[in-house]
Queue: 2 jobs
Job 1
Amino acid sequence: MFDLSKFLKSIHLTKVSFYFLIFLILISFSITFYLMLPNNDLVKNPQRLQYFLLADVIFVILLISIIIRQIVLILVRRKKSYDESRLYIKFVNLFIAMALGPAIGLVIITSLFFNLELRTWYGDAVRDAVVNSNIVAKNYENEIQAELISDTQLIMREVLLSSKNNEVNIVNIQKALSEFINLRTISSIYIFNNDGNIFLSLKDRENINFFNPESKIYEILDQNQVYIFQLNKNSIAAYKKINFLDNVYMQVNRELNENIWDHIGATKEAYRIYTIKEEESSGVQVTYSMIFVLFSICFILIAILIGFNLASNLSKPITNLINSANKISDGDFDAKVSETDQFDEIKILLSSYNKMISEIENKQNELVAKSNEDEEKRIFIEAILSLLTIGVISLDKNFNIILFNKTILKLFKNTKNFKIKDNFLNIFPEWREIFDNFKISKKILLNFQYDFNIFDDQRNFNIRVIKEISEGEVEGYVVALDDATSLILAEKHAAWSDIARKIAHEVKNPLTPIKLSAERIEKKFIENNYSKDEISTLTKTISRQVDDIGKLVDEFSSFARMPQAEIKLDNLSQCLENAYQLYYNSNKNIKFTYFKPKNDIYYQFDNLQISRCFNNLIKNAIEAVEKIPNPSVEVKIYNNNNNKIIVEIKDNGIGIDEKMISKIFEPYFTTKSKGTGLGLSIVKRIIEDHGGKIKIEKNKNMAGTTSLIIFDNNV
């Protein structure tokens, strides 16, 4: 026999499907609302709008179908006298009443409010204000244009009086117009021919505001008309042909109040938009009314469905609780109630109920679980110890061996004899003092290293000892022994490799000025153009850089680290200028710019290390621009308003990807094919050791990057 209740339950929506359906309905109605707005250019074909209207109708029918399904289910349950249906029906009636009451009232109030507001928007007061504002704007604009036309006529008269035999006398015209322009509100005057050649320019020697008319404008001017146009936001201009001169024209510019002119344009645009919207007001009212009716029906149906859903969520867990209690009374302790997808208050009730069932069940299984636990622990510990690559020994409180794994025998290659109940300190008598001190101390963990010679092979062990404490008393110890020989060797090799790379990089920096100085000496000898002072300066540079290399190598060989900084008060701006001059004299194909304040800037710093930083950054800037046209490098130092010393080194080179900027100071990271990746890392360390900060930024208004160094000026 056909069961209507089972059939209806089989076609139900899941929670995810229900909310996804509501999401689709909201999207469909929102698109429909947008497409039905007046003068919407998105939909040229009305059929497209019909498709969305059809989809909205289908969604509404689907919502009605779901509601009908719920109502039929309620009737079927009530007919079969289901106990849970009574509570479900009460919840449904409550939530539907709560949803429909406010929704219907909101529909009525919103409809009235919308109609009143629409009438207010297009009332007589607003219309009169917009129309009168447009009239005032037009009158002002016409008045300005009339004054400008009058100015062109007066200028023609002055030109006529200053010309003889229809010939342009620039001197006379300039004299006459200079007196005239001072009496009028004219910003500039230009006399030119139809080829764009300017004979005379007043108040604008650079001819910045002169524009040669197009051919169409020349045709208008040849008909003895004045052509007026807006030059920019705060000025207008007029073209006029000087009739008594052959192919001679003039441009007259007049400045305006920028705010007034902007208001005139805004007023005209507002009047145009208001006129269009007023014509469309009836269509807008009908459109919005249709959309509002559709939305109201849709939201009411959704509210009813949500009411059904809430009623089901409240009645279902109570029904499940009753069924579970009946099963538990028959001895089925697995009949727990699901706590998922419930309200917090109901979830607390179900959680307490399930907890009660679990406690009853745990009492029955406690004896079995206790016996199995010890066995599982033993198997688990043995399995873990057999898989470990470190040796593990368990000791009692007197250091007697309780347990050890096979790995401990492999580590010592059977040179040590480990037996259960033997004293651990008899096997390792050299550790007796260490363990005795650890026993009386309050420490829980002990770490130390020890070297063993196993078959003429020196091995380094890491030893870790942990106390086993129970109720405040030490009951035993766990000793872990790990052969760390390979790891230590790898760390030593890595450390020496890192030191070698740093030495190579730091030695490389002074080699550049040495090479540049040597090349300049060679060039001067070849050209036979040198002096003792120049040669002395270059040789001193070479000597100074060689001394720097020697000092650097000495420091690395002694301490395997950066040289110790010799901080003292020194001239920071002079240090930067020395680095700048070094590269400026050697790269004449690059446009260098240097800015510094009138007064020198002093700071506490190591001259050698900071010079190395400046050299590195300027060298990077030069390498970034050497393969591009019009290369330029800008170096700047100044004090800002926050009492900071700022050093900027800017280039217009190829730049760097923004994704790489965050990694640019990491050791060994480089974008150069032959770079070591240590330069900027060392620069950053030196700057930070001097209490400063450094960052690399992409230029905002040009290509390339800027290196920015910031020091706190506490001198």
Job 2
Amino acid sequence: MYLCGKKKMEHIRTDFGLLERARTCWDAASGFRADRDRNKRFTYGDQWSDLVDDGVSKVPEETLIRRQGNTPLKNNLIRRLVRNVLGVYRNRWTLPECVARDPAESVRTATMQRLMHFNIATNRMEELYSRSMEEFLIGGLVVHKKWFGSKGNRTDCWTDFVQPDRFIIDPSTRDFRGWDITLVGEIHDMSFDEICSSFCTSAEERKALRDIYRTDNGGVTQTVPFGSGERSPSFHTPANAGACRVIEIWTLEHPSRYACHDTASGRRFRVNEEDYDRIVEQENRRRILQCGKDLSLPRLIEARWRTDEEWHYHFITPDGQVIREGASPYSHGGHPYVFKAYPFIDGEIHSFVSDIIDQQKVTNRLISMYDWILRASAKGVLLFPEESLPQGVCIDDIADEWSRFNGVILFRPRAGIPLPQQVSSKCADIGITDLLNIQMKMMEDISGVNGALQGKLDSSTMSGTLYDQQTRNSLTALADIMGSFEDFMAEAIRKDASNIRQYYSPRRIEAVTGLHPGLTSDLRPSRNFFSPDLDFGWRLRNT
């Protein structure tokens, strides 16, 4: 399910060092996960959960306000701003356009573009990228996984959305493009049957996994309500009782090898240190002996020692048992993840939403304060002298009749005693309305989502040209975050293209693109329709 094909499980070894290294990386991202959770709460309306000191302990703000007899109110402006930015992105949704460096490769270029658009439709990428953009605005980190394998009854190149709170990344990375990363991975929680489907090739391997997870293959007990989310998942323990945890870890290894050049055939290849004597030395001795007394020098294999870079995958259980590992199966030689963190200055992540939380909190406090002032002011209070009460009537009867529609109140007027009267007073204007307008204007200025981008007109007489110009100007503040996300999309497209070139057979290409002149003859001879020397470029264009 997670790697192309299956291979037989070899001896299951234990690697506590790798597990501890992954846990250290996970712990280093605890601050990011806490910030993302807070940003998500504020975006979706839970805006009074920050902890405050009540003099005894830390309690949520909402609890403290309710203890004081007040009701915390909110006006969720963050959600509106996020929706506006998502609307801008939806209108700018782009499809990749394939461009070949060699103009003569127009047939292969058109074929690759059609394959890419087919893959985009298969994975429903427009919706996936839109939800990923929402995650990018809220948390500042978006992660996809590009892999080839079976999903359901279909085998294809797939894109999976990776939850950022389950993503493991090397905390020492500082490159905005992620080129200096040495460890990456994610946490999977699956049923035992899903694990067997992904890793087992025999009944013996299934038994070995059952011994590891100590499960009777019963049903999973759901402990997290649907739609409620999961806060701060643990590294070792699944949130759902009965689920089995597998930690996927990709590490950048540096094996020592010999770079070899066969001067007889011109072939270049690499040999591991342990195979050097068998493959190179013995072959060179055989060629020297075969040459005999021939004065011409034998054409030997030239070798040079070097250190390579190679990505390896490891699927490891929470108790450190590695159930599968190996070198990257992908032709690009890297890990399957594509991620983008914003802005990632000194490795720090600060999202779009985090910039406007303070203004949202001030707005909520002003609205709540305005409500408290209104409730504290007198509104329709009835002043009823006790001497005016009729005989046999209590004040509760008067209050009940006062609150009733078309009620009639009996009273006994007496000389020198004032008549019953209603008292209403206006609340004092202390400038809360002006402060609210200032905060909402500041929120628009900080976020860059101003009135023009929200479809608001400054006046009914504004010309269409001026409005269009204001809309374009308002996009300037969002150009940076939009550009970063488009860079993420471009990197994702490059990995998609690499997987398509590697795994799409001629028959698959023919089934997707159909037959047209200049293509059929190239498809049938071999699988290498997209030769490694063919250089593609990609650019995003508006639909």
